[in-house]
């Protein structure tokens, strides 16, 4: 047994304090919103929206009301819109409390790589670097190993970096882990996952 | 002697785009396909200019928006933050036809904002310790390292507004705002395509999102495709 | 675990100002006596803190506004752009009781904006070749010399808004806006005094001047003096 | 005969193109507005107002609608309000076409000093340096000499500078003069003012 992506999203939602400002990265992290109680936190979309609401009802989609993943969304009462410079001012200025980001690699020192595969197609940086270096608390969500069974929790990233020494917590299908500098500390293992399994799947010391 | 802030409303896209010339740096508002100046984008292709440097967050997608410029072969360089599934850009980047400079999205926005606000360069933490830092000056300030980034000015900005008055005061709709205001501030000449054109005074002074000081030509375009990238919905309860 | 964005509305000025301590750097909105957080300014004197560094464009005038802090002797340093006829500041500056750092008004606004936007320093043309340049780094960029100016963050911002919702989204009225938004962005803790308090949703998303992400405490104060400095009028025709 | 302050303001108004953005400094320059046709130009007040209108009718004064001189004003249709950072972005970014500023000294090289008297009370800088260094066209308005008959059009300023090499035109009670680098060029003399009078009253070559 490991965490499903739903389990991971539910687990990640527990890291979001009530009354905080949260940016959920494109893809898996976006699902975290499904597990947040109504009114619990304020979701920030870096394209210029604070107070992002759920997807619109069919027929109410507005092409000029989207999140950073270009999905149609809604805006909650108390929400606000602003331009890109203001939006990234919020991020860079440390006003966003938590960012939950997808990742390709996370190192024991908190480095994160999540925007490019060496030798792969360049997809661009988008808001990844701003979010990773600007937010007060950066949580990474990813599968523990690649499809080819390569480590993704590593001693040192060899993928192009997004930001250095920023990740506070990694949530994977095997559990929850905290970078400590030289190692990852086991915060929690998924039900049925043994310490040995986790150690074998991790490319850095696990304590 | 007449300044640039008289008689801004023009009758056609053609007239609005008349000042464009080959080799210009064009700043274009929009995030993905949202908040795009669609008629101006099409009009630039019809205008027949080439060798453009395009500054935009995405440079189009799904064959739409600024992808038209790539298809038409009128772009020599793109400065953007994200390519994603934009195959028109991927193929032209791979072939070497178009040079691509990728910058973090917040740095792109701030470089444009700086250009508009007369700030030639600024320090930022974004990209420190990454490839973004390569070839740039860095400085340690209060114990943290920062990158020096330069302002990014343009010759012309293409902007989409929801509502404009005749002086060029603009309002945007929801996340259609995105890069549009900063693009307008950063260009020598800002051309606005607006869904609604109203008389001066119809927008209350406190309700202006971008002041007309940053706008030089206005063209009213009532109909837009307003393309969706991901039309996500939920069921009614 | 509760974040800073729940339950921001407090019942009194006293409660709003409870976190203040001696020696803090306080950023205060307002231009002259316009758009001042009048009740918070008075409340700080009653709060009994001292040795404050005050950042404000004017530091009061005509014995009003922030002049109250000068009279009370709770300010050790003022960072401002203009003194003019502010005799309370002139006398305390002359006696050495208060240290005054004067900065160009645009540089003051930009330093605050930078602090709020995570920009630690920026280059500006303002003040080049003047006393403002003294002791500062300069750099030639594209043939013009610029001064490096530092971000100016604060511990607490005191802000006056016309309308606030319960999350802290703010609207300002006319030129009462002035420095209020940038002060709010630049402080660790922003305290807002609003003329009107409304429910979330009462301000349309596109009509928010400053998003609630920059606001931490809100107190509703219906009555203000709103002092005039120069009441200039014309005759009815 | 020399220009009265009204003459100076009227003369200055001729330097403002139709459809331009203008910032009028506190004091004498503010009077220039009286000679601008309705709708001729857009007046910018650096405290956060574009489209500044005339003084309000009695009883309609709004303490939160003032110009940079803290005078109660009105706002014209098409006017807009904004915060101080945005306002000085307009100035510093070169979006204000013309600034008309009071001055204590102007040098033949275009240097301007208008914020402090050596040894005098420090009044502060306000927006003077931003306006002088940011606006595309800077016009100085002042009396040609001080009350003690000291030169104000000088070879080199000895008052604390506001900005260097920015003034394009000086309008005084004796006429209109353009800094050329080493000298002032006479653009126009006030009615009845002789070339000799102007030369005697000027602390730099007059050509």
Key words describing this protein structure:
heterotetramer, A: 207 residues, alpha/beta, nine-stranded mixed beta sheet, three-stranded mixed beta sheet, 27% strand, B: 237 residues, three-stranded antiparallel beta sheet
Description:
Chain A is an alpha/beta fold and 207 residues long. Chain A has a single domain, classed as Glutaconate Coenzyme A-transferase (3-Layer(aba) Sandwich), CATH 3.40.1080. Chain A is built from four helices and twelve strands; from the N terminus they run αββββαβββαβββββα. Chain A has helices at 5-13, 84-92, 128-134, 195-200; strands spanning 21-24, 42-45, 49-53, 74-81, 98-102, 105-107, 112-113, 137-141, 153-154, 167-172, 175-179, 184-189. Chain A has a nine-stranded mixed sheet. A three-stranded mixed sheet of chain A has the order 7-6-9, with no helix packed on it. The mean pLDDT of chain A is 97. Chain B is of the alpha/beta class and 237 residues long. Chain B has a single domain (13-220), classed as Glutaconate Coenzyme A-transferase. Chain B has six helices and eleven strands. Chain B has helices spanning 13-17, 38-47, 67-72, 87-94, 105-117, 180-186; strands at residues 25-28, 52-55, 75-80, 99-102, 121-124, 138-141, 144-150, 154-165, 170-171, 187-198, 217-220. In chain B, strands 1, 2, 3, 4, 8, 9, 10 and 11 form an eight-stranded mixed sheet that branches. Chain B has a three-stranded antiparallel sheet with strand order 5-7-6. In chain B, helix 5 (105-117) packs across helix 6. The N and C termini of chain B lie far apart (63 Å). The mean pLDDT of chain B is 97. Chains in contact: A-B, A-C, B-C, B-D, C-D. At the A-B interface, helix 2 and helix 3 of A face helix 5 and helix 6 of B.
């Amino acid at each position: 047994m490991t965490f499903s992506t739903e389990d991971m999203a539910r687990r990640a939602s527990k890291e979001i304090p009530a009354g905080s400002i949260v940016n959920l990265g494109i893809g898996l992290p976006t699902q975290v919103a499904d597990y947040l109680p109504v009114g619990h936190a304020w979701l920030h979309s870096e394209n210029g929206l604070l107070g992002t609401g759920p997807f619109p009802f069919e027929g109410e989609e507005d092409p000029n009301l989207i999140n950073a993943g270009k999905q149609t969304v809604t805006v909650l009462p108390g929400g606000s819109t602003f331009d890109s410079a203001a939006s990234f001012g919020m991020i860079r200025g440390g006003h966003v409390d938590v960012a939950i980001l997808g990742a390709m690699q996370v190192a024991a020192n908190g480095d994160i790589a999540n925007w490019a595969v060496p030798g792969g197609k360049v997809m661009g940086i988008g808001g990844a670097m701003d979010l990773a270096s600007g937010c007060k608390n950066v949580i990474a969500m990813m599968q523990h190993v690649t499809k080819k069974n390569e480590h993704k929790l590593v001693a040192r990233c060899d993928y192009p970096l997004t930001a250095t020494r920023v990740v506070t917590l990694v949530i994977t299908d095997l559990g929850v882990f905290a970078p400590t500098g030289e190692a990852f500390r086991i915060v929690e293992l998924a039900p049925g996952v043994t310490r040995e399994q986790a150690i074998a799947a991790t490319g850095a010391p696990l304590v | 002697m007449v300044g640039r802030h008289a008689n801004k409303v023009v009758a056609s896209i053609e007239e609005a785009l008349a000042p464009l010339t080959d080799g210009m740096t064009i700043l274009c508002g929009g995030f993905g396909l949202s908040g795009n100046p669609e008629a101006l984008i099409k009009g630039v292709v019809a205008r027949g200019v080439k060798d453009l440097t395009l500054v935009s967050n995405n440079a189009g997608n799904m064959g739409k928006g600024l992808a038209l410029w790539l298809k038409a072969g009128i772009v020599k360089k793109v400065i953007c933050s994200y390519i994603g599934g934009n195959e028109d850009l991927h193929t032209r980047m791979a072939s070497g036809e178009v040079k691509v400079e990728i910058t973090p999205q917040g740095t792109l926005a701030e470089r444009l904002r700086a250009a508009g606000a007369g700030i030639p360069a600024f320090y930022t933490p974004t990209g420190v310790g990454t490839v973004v830092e390569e070839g740039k000056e860095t400085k340690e300030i209060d114990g943290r390292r920062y990158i020096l980034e330069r302002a990014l000015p343009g010759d012309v900005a293409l902007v989409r507004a929801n509502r404009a008055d005749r002086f060029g005061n603009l309002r945007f709709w929801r996340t259609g705002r995105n890069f549009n205001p900063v693009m307008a501030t950063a260009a020598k000449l800002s051309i606005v395509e607006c869904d609604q054109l109203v008389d001066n005074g119809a927008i209350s002074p406190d309700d202006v999102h971008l002041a007309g000081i940053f706008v030089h030509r206005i063209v009213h375009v009532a109909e837009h495709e307003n393309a969706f990238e991901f039309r996500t919905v939920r069921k009614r309860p």
